[in-house]
Design brief:
Blueprint: H1 2-14, E1 19-23, H2 29-33, H3 36-40, E2 47-53, H4 57-63, H5 67-71, E3 75-78, E4 95-97, E5 120-125, H6 132-141, E6 146-151, H7 154-157, E7 166-169, H8 174-180
Parallel strand pairs: 1-2, 2-3, 3-4, 5-6, 6-7
Length: about 180
């Protein structure tokens, strides 16, 4: 992978101008290929390195032990201001916040229909950094009129099979997810 990336950057540099390499997953991509500029030698000054970071600060502490490598970036992008304390070692001009989330024009609360049968719904979506053990305990202790809709991969929602007040969804398309929200 590094050889391919180096080849692409070198080819772009030969065309002249500057090259921006953006690691969309800085926790992994830049962590693995952060020595890219050093490997280029000639033309390295025309390469700008940018990385986006998605994990919360405590997890960044675990996966990015070498802050000196991160400091070599031209720009670090965070998806939440809660990540700023981790990146406090960077000069302010090297750190930007890019809001990352859902399309709130599409996924927004609709009219709240009154449930004729008194049921209430709780929706949980995704799997990353979710505490499924705690969710299972909550579902098991919740009253039967509280229905939990769990959206995620089959390997994650399968554990809730057999719980009377848990509905499982996997492979959900946008329109169905909108309905669930």
């Amino acid at each position: 992978m590094m050889v391919r990336l180096l080849g692409q950057v070198r080819a772009a540099l030969e065309e002249g101008g500057k090259v921006v390499v953006h690691f969309l997953d800085g926790e992994i991509g830049y962590n693995l290929f952060g020595s890219l500029r050093r490997r280029l030698a000639r033309g390295a000054r025309r390469v700008r390195l940018v990385a986006s970071y998605h994990q919360p600060g405590p997890l960044l502490e675990e996966v990015l032990p070498r802050k000196a490598r991160v400091a070599q970036l031209d720009l670090a992008l965070t998806v939440g201001t809660s990540q700023f304390p981790f990146f406090a070692f960077l000069p302010q001009e090297k750190l930007r916040f890019v809001p990352h989330g859902i399309d709130t024009d599409y996924y927004r609360p609709g009219e709240r229909p009154a449930a004729a049968d008194g049921r209430l719904f709780c929706l949980t979506v995704g799997h990353w950094l979710r505490d499924f053990d705690a969710l299972e305990q909550v579902i098991n202790s919740a009253p039967p009129q509280l229905i939990f809709r769990i959206v995620g991969g089959k390997e994650h929602v399968g554990r809730f099979r057999g719980l009377a007040n848990a509905e499982r969804y996997s492979g959900v398309e946008d329109d169905e997810l909108l309905h669930l929200y």
